[in-house]
Write a structure and sequence with these properties.
single chain, 70 residues, mainly alpha, 4 helices, 0% strand, globular
């Protein structure tokens, strides 16, 4: 959930068409679970927006957006 909220609040979903928002969020979560599980585990174990967590979320989202698949 934190990853999706961060994506919205940071403007990563600003250009996503309204009808694609649900698909974007689902694909982002799947992408994170596949390649960024350690980041998700770190966020779940210490649910604070640390610099490390924020940097990891930013990288994850940017890597996901670069794929263009949602």
């Amino acid at each position: 959930m934190a990853l999706s909220i961060y994506a919205v609040n940071s403007g990563y979903m600003d250009k996503v068409e309204l009808k694609q928002v649900v698909a974007f969020e689902a694909a982002l979560q799947a992408f994170a679970h596949t390649g960024y599980q350690s980041m998700l585990d770190a966020i779940n174990s210490a649910p604070k927006l640390s610099r490390e967590n924020e940097a990891a979320m930013k990288k994850c989202i940017e890597d996901f957006v670069a794929t263009g698949t949602y």
